[in-house]
C-alpha cells in the first residue's frame, strides 16, 4: 500500500530557474497538500498536464527527494524514516535516471540483481522471464547506447523489476514509445496488477489512463482535483470521456472557456 498524507513539496529556485520561469518568486510549490492511497492489485494513474507535479510526487514516494511537509508510507514504512526499507519494496522507473549507456543490458541486469542480493540461480531465471517477455534476449549483449529508444526503455523496465518488487512506480512509462512497444509495456503493467502488485504510474495520455488505470488521480498545479475510477470521474464531472472530464476540471481551476 502507498499512503500519502498531506504532502507538500516546495522547490527553492536559483536565479536561472527564476528567469526561465519568468518569476520573481524564489520558491515553487510543485505539490500542494496531496493525499492519496493506492492499494495492491490496482493500477493507480496520476494524470496531469506538464508541470502538474506528477514526477515530483513519484520521486518523493521513491525516496529520491524529500517532501517539504507531510508523510508518505510505502508498505508501512515512512519514506523519510526508513528509506532503505522503502527501496527494497519498490521498482522505480523514470526518464531522468538512465542506465549507464556504456554497459550491456546483461551487465546492468546482473549488477542491479546483485545489489539486491538476489541468489544467482534466481537472477538467471528472472532474467530469462523478463528478457523473453520484453523480447530483449537477442540484444542483451549490446551496450545500452546501441539500442533503439524502445529497446532501451524495455531494458530499463526489466532492470528495475529485477528484484520482483511488490510496488512498481513508473513515471510516464510509455513516453516516446511506438504503439507496439507501448502496448507490451502496458500489458506487462496489467499482468503485474493481476499478480497482486501495486502499480502507480504518471501519465498525461488520457487514453492510456482510461484503458489501464483502475483508479485515476487528476492533478493540476500540484493539487489533486479529482479521484476515482473512470466511471466515478465521468459521473462527477458529468462528461463522457476522460479528456472532457479533464477540461471541465481544468476550466474550474484556471477559469475561461
Ligand atoms: N528540481 C526542481 N527545481 C525547481 N523546480 C522544479 C524542480 N523539479 C520540478 N520543478 C517544478 O515543479 C513543477 C512540477 O514539476 P514536475 O516535474 O513534478 O511535474 P510533472 O507533472 O511531472 O510534469 P511533466 O509532465 O512536464 O514531467 C514544475 O513547475 C517544475 O518546473
Automatic annotation (TrEMBL):
It comes from the Bacteria. The lineage of its organism: Bacteria, Bacillati, Bacillota, Clostridia, Lachnospirales. Keywords: ATP-binding, Nucleotide-binding, Transport. The keyword Nucleotide-binding applies. This is Sodium transport system ATP-binding protein. Residues 13-246 form the ABC transporter domain. Belongs to the ABC transporter superfamily. Gene3D superfamilies: P-loop containing nucleotide triphosphate hydrolases. GO terms for molecular function: ATP binding; ATP hydrolysis activity. It comes from Faecalicatena orotica.
Amino acid at each position: 500500500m502507498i499512503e500519502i498524507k498531506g504532502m507538500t513539496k516546495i522547490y527553492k529556485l536559483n536565479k536561472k530557474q527564476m528567469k526561465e520561469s519568468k518569476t520573481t518568486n524564489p520558491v515553487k510549490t510543485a505539490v500542494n497538500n496531496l493525499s492519496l492511497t493506492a492499494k495492491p492489485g490496482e493500477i493507480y494513474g496520476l494524470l496531469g498536464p506538464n508541470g502538474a507535479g506528477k514526477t515530483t510526487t513519484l520521486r518523493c514516494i521513491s525516496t529520491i527527494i524529500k517532501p517539504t511537509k507531510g508523510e508518505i508510507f510505502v508498505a508501512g514504512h515512512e519514506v523519510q524514516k526508513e528509506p532503505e526499507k522503502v527501496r527494497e519494496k519498490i521498482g522505480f522507473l523514470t526518464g531522468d535516471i538512465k542506465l549507464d549507456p556504456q554497459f550491456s543490458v546483461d551487465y546492468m541486469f546482473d549488477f542491479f540483481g546483485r545489489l539486491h542480493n538476489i541468489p544467482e540461480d534466481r537472477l538467471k531465471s528472472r532474467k530469462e522471464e523478463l528478457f523473453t517477455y520484453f523480447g530483449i534476449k537477442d540484444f542483451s549483449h549490446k551496450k545500452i547506447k546501441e539500442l533503439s529508444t524502445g529497446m532501451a526503455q524495455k531494458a530499463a523496465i526489466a532492470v528495475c523489476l529485477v528484484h520482483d518488487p511488490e510496488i512498481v512506480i513508473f513515471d510516464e512509462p510509455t513516453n516516446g514509445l511506438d504503439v507496439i512497444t507501448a502496448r507490451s509495456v502496458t500489458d506487462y503493467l496489467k499482468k503485474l496488477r493481476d499478480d497482486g502488485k501495486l502499480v502507480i504510474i504518471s501519465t498525461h495520455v488520457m487514453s492510456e489512463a482510461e484503458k489501464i488505470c483502475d483508479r485515476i488521480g487528476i492533478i493540476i498545479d500540484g493539487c489533486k482535483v479529482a479521484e476515482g475510477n473512470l466511471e466515478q470521474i465521468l459521473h462527477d464531472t458529468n462528461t463522457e470521456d476522460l479528456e472532457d472530464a479533464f477540461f471541465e476540471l481544468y476550466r474550474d481551476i484556471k477559469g475561461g472557456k
